[in-house]
Structure formats: structure tokens, C-alpha cells
């Protein structure tokens, strides 16, 4: 078994332990509805942006920039391909579930779950390329993805995409790259340490969500099929295509791993706020997250054999 697969197994076990911690602290009423929002904001507006910024805070070269462009193209192509597949597969589902399934088919949890995995397995280099991968899905989430739930509102694109903290740090990162400058000393260290909160905090929140799920909601056939698409079928098809196109191993590994992440965690929030089936969406996120503890290392091993 290759070193990368061994690291992936260790990483998934670590994330699973974080998830169990979240489950327990929610049952102990430490994480509650009245304080959960603060933790989500801390994750999305502080920890994750700092992790991304830390990935840019290093010397870069033209080859890295060329590789990052390829990663972005692959990410965009995957989103549109999954959009088409979802439109075909879910056309007979009830409207409130179809909205959720379309969004779930198109977007993985590449940010909350994927970037921490890349950070633990590949280090800052992996997070750098992972941040590039996230740019097309982030734009599509708040345009095409939101369109599954409602008509686009004026000003929504600017607020939710162009001024999103995750996107703003990418602007800063590009500036650092353009001037070949790094944030020095204790400031750079502070950014790195704040970013290190991402993996435990994101998985603790997912575990807290699982603690409130009803067992019956977790075995819906549509939930299981959506999870299989997200975790196994889409990643394997993509790996085969990238192999046939002779994409380099690092880029293929990174893109397939991010693609194999569970269903995007904000699927449930979208459904709750904009008229989808919130319970069904929560089940999709929870089941795919639990299964990913096993499937991500397996997919990682399989792509080494292709």
C-alpha cells in the first residue's frame, strides 16, 4: 500500500474521531442551536480563510501557476458534467427533493472536508491547489446551485461570491504571488495556527448534526444512491478520464480526492432557507459524511492502481 493511501487512512480516522467528539458534545448540550451559528461563522469566516491564505504564503513558480489553471478547468468541467447527470437521474423525483439532489450531485464538501484532508495529506501545497479547485464550484454554488432553489436576487452574486471571505483571501493570495512576497514571522505563524482549527472544527460541527438525525431518515434509497454517486461513481469515472488524458499524478490525485468528498455541507442550509426538504438534505449530508470515512481511503487506493 502506497504512502499516500496510508496517510489518507490515518487522516480519515482522525477526522472520524473529531466527528465522534462533535456527536458527544452535542448530546451533552455543549453545542446547541443557540451557539452553533457562532461556531459556523468561526469556521467559515476565520479558520478556513486562514488555512487558504497560509497555502499562498510561500514562494511560487510558473509551473505551479500552470498546474493550478489545469485544476480549475477540471473542477469546472466536473461540476457541469455532474449537473447534466443529475438532471437526467433525478428528473422523476418530487420537486422539493429534486432541488436537494441536484445540488448534492453537483457539489461536494471539498471546502469543509476536502481542504483539511489535503492539508493533512499533502501539506500547504495541497491546500494551494485545492483552493484553486474550489474557485469554479464556489461561483457555481451561488449562481447555478442557488438557482435550483430560487430565482437569483439582485446583488446576491457580489455579496456571496465576490465578497465571500474564502474568495477575498484568494485575492490576497494572488497579490502575494504576483509580488513574490510572504507574510513574515509571527504573523505568518498566527495565520497557520488559525488555519489548523479547520479540520477539528468542521468535523465537530458535522458530528453535532449527526446527533440529531433520526435513523429512518438515513436509509432513504435516494439518500444512499446520491451518496454512492458523490463518493464512488463520479470520482472513479473522473479518474479514468483523467488517466486517459495523461493528467499528471499529483493533479489527478488531488482532483479525484476533492471530488470524492461527501455531499456539500451547505446543502441542508440551502434547503432549509430556500424551500427544499431540509430533513432529506440533512440525511444526504450525514450519510455521505459517515460513508466517506471508508470510501475516501478506498478511492485513493483505487486511483493508485489505475
Textual characterization of the structure:
The protein is mostly helical and 306 residues long. The protein has one domain (3-305): Na+/H+ antiporter like fold, CATH 1.20.1530. 79% of the residues lie in helices and 0% in strands. It has 14 helices and no strands. It has helices at residues 3-27, 33-56, 62-89, 95-106, 110-122, 124-147, 156-162, 165-178, 185-195, 198-210, 221-244, 249-259, 266-274, 278-305. α1 (3-27) packs antiparallel against α14. The protein is globular. The two termini are 14 Å apart. The mean pLDDT is 84.
Write the layout of secondary structure elements.
Blueprint: H1 3-27, H2 33-56, H3 62-89, H4 95-106, H5 110-122, H6 124-147, H7 156-162, H8 165-178, H9 185-195, H10 198-210, H11 221-244, H12 249-259, H13 266-274, H14 278-305
Helix pairs in contact: 1-10, 1-14, 2-6, 2-8, 2-9, 2-10, 3-4, 3-6, 4-13, 4-14, 5-6, 5-10, 5-12, 6-7, 6-12, 11-12, 11-14, 13-14
Notable characteristics:
mainly alpha; 0% strand; single chain; 14 helices; 306 residues
Report the CATH C-level class.
Mainly Alpha
Number of helices: 14
Helix content: over 70%
Under the CATH scheme, which architecture would be assigned?
Up-down Bundle
Mean pLDDT metric: 84
Structural class: mainly alpha
- In total, how many domains does the architecture comprise? 1
Strand tally is: 0
What is the first-to-last residue Cα distance?
A: 14 Å
Our Rg estimate from Cα atoms comes to 18 Å
Sheet with most strands:
none
Weakly predicted, low-confidence segments:
none
Task: List SSEs in N-to-C order.
Answer: HHHHHHHHHHHHHH
Strand content: under 5%
What CATH calls the topology is Na+/H+ antiporter like fold
Which shape, going by the Cα principal axes?
globular
Amino acid at each position: 500500500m502506497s504512502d499516500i493511501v496510508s496517510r489518507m487512512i490515518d487522516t480519515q480516522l482522525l477526522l472520524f474521531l473529531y466527528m465522534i467528539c462533535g456527536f458527544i458534545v452535542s448530546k451533552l448540550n455543549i453545542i446547541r442551536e443557540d451557539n452553533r451559528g457562532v461556531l459556523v461563522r468561526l469556521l467559515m469566516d476565520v479558520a478556513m480563510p486562514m488555512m487558504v491564505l497560509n497555502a499562498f504564503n510561500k514562494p511560487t513558480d510558473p509551473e505551479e501557476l500552470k498546474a493550478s489553471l489545469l485544476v480549475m478547468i477540471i473542477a469546472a468541467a466536473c461540476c457541469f458534467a455532474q449537473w447534466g447527470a443529475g438532471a437526467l437521474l433525478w428528473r422523476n423525483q418530487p420537486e422539493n427533493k429534486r432541488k436537494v439532489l441536484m445540488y448534492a450531485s453537483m457539489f461536494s464538501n471539498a471546502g469543509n472536508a476536502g481542504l483539511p484532508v489535503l492539508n493533512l495529506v499533502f501539506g500547504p501545497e495541497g491546500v494551494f491547489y485545492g483552493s484553486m479547485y474550489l474557485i469554479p464550484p464556489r461561483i457555481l454554488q451561488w449562481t447555478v446551485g442557488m438557482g435550483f432553489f430560487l430565482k437569483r436576487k439582485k446583488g446576491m452574486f457580489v455579496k456571496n461570491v465576490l465578497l465571500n471571505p474564502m474568495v477575498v483571501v484568494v485575492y490576497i493570495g494572488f497579490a502575494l504571488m504576483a509580488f513574490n512576497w510572504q507574510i513574515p514571522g509571527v504573523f505568518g505563524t498566527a495565520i497557520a495556527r488559525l488555519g489548523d482549527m479547520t479540520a477539528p472544527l468542521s468535523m465537530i460541527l458535522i458530528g453535532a448534526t449527526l446527533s440529531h438525525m433520526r435513523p429512518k431518515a438515513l436509509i432513504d434509497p435516494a439518500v444512499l444512491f446520491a451518496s454512492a454517486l458523490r463518493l464512488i461513481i463520479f470520482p472513479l469515472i473522473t479518474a479514468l478520464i483523467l488517466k486517459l488524458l495523461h493528467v499528471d499524478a499529483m493533479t489527478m490525485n488531488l482532483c479525484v480526492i476533492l471530488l470524492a468528498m461527501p455531499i456539500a455541507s451547505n446543502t441542508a442550509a440551502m434547503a432549509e432557507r430556500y424551500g427544499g426538504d431540509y430533513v432529506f438534505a440533512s440525511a444526504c449530508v450525514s450519510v455521505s459524511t459517515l460513508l466517506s470515512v471508508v470510501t475516501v481511503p478506498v478511492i485513493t487506493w483505487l486511483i493508485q492502481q489505475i
